[in-house]
Each structure stands twice: as structure tokens, then as C-alpha cells.
């Protein structure tokens, strides 16, 4: 029987995180070296949104540069990790058994919400990667259920990753508010850390009513939803390690959370 792997939530920040690692990049790289080697990495990213749920079955996923107006260096980066069709088949089985309208997708590659953070975790591109799409009508409660449906994969050697951003106000990012925005973002980050450490599903689902500055931190929910997804996939009895990735551009927090399996919690 495989050792149950942790489940991760990572903040993938701006696409420039690929070439400007700041604090978070080296910390993710260290985490990748410390984790048990996974059979595959399964990523939920807000940059692949579909009607219903799709699972990428691509054996050799393309590196997708789904952004514009950034340095040319970014568009030259390739992350040639193989896909994981067998894991994709198992994910489809689990999703359908849990009542999700899940279909295979043999065309999708890896958007930057997947390859940018996974490239920091596993820079050699030697671990297979696949994605599960985010349904367009997903809400936080549904994200928990989606993660819970896929949770058995963590016991089968798959590293489940919710890739989003713990704060994600693109208007303020583009306006370069700098330190002026740090106060509200830091308050939201502190709240989120407390909620994940307690596995507080109620708080993470009802974040718009319970978290400070929630609507400013997340004008849209897409980059928040990978967090309740990760919570749903995680071992509810395990502890949580917070990786403080710092604050970039004044308002984009780069926290990552490692939802440890119970048996590994005090290793």
C-alpha cells in the first residue's frame, strides 16, 4: 500500500513567477525535494475552466503560454513533463462514482497555473502531470466535494495540487498599488492561515461573509476555489504546514499550504 501523500495548495501568482521566483520559488523547490516522489501530479487550475469537469488524458501535454504582454523569455519556457493517462482514467472513475459529469480531454496541455508552480517543485520535468478542469459554475462547497471525490488518489501515489492565489486582485496588481495594498491583503492571509490550520471547512466555504476584505482579496472566486478543493482532498486528521512565500506587487500573496497526511504529520 502506498504512503498517503500530502495535498498542496499553491499560489501561482503572476506568470512572471516562472522567471522571478522571489521567496516562494526556492521554498517550493525545497518542498519538491522533501516530498515522497509522486507517481503523478494532478493540478486544478483556474486557467482551465469548462462546462462540467474534464480530465486531461494527454500523454505528452503541451506547455501553454496563456498570457500576453509579458517578457519574451516567458514564452520560450517549455516544461516537457509527460502526462499520466492511467491516472487520468482513475480520476475519471472516481469523479463519475461521486456523481460528477466528468469527461476525458485528449487535447489539453498544461496552462501556466499548472506548469509554473510544478516547474518550481520538480524542475527536471521528470514527474508526470495532468490537470482536472474547474467547472464554470463551481462554488466553494462544490470545490470541497470535487477535492473529496479525488482524495483516494493521494493514497495511490498522486500529489494533488490546488493552484490558485491566496489573494488575487488583478486591478490592484495592474495599478501597482505597492505597499498601500499590503495591509488588507495581509489581514486576509492571516485569516486564511488560521482557517486552514484548523481545517475549518465552514469558514473556507463561507469566506465571503467571514473573512476580512474577502471581496477585495478575491473580486472573482476562481483563484480562491483551489483552496477549498485542496481542503476537500486532504486528510482531515493531518496537520497543515504554511509556507510563507511573501507578498509580491504589494497585493499578490504567495502562500502555499501543505495538508499533511496523518501518518506523516509528526514525522
Automatic annotation (TrEMBL):
**InterPro entries linked:** Extradiol_dOase_DODA, Xdiol_dOase_suB
Keyword flag Isomerase: no
Segments forming domain Extradiol ring-cleavage dioxygenase class III enzyme subunit B: 34-239
Keywords from the UniProt entry: Dioxygenase, Metal-binding, Oxidoreductase, Zinc
Cofactor(s) this protein cannot do without: Zn(2+)
Q: Does the keyword Oxidoreductase apply?
A: yes
Q: Which Pfam families match?
A: LigB
Molecular function (Gene Ontology), one example: oxidoreductase activity, acting on single donors with incorporation of molecular oxygen, incorporation of two atoms of oxygen
Family membership:
Belongs to the DODA-type extradiol aromatic ring-opening dioxygenase family.
State the protein's name.
Answer: Dioxygenase
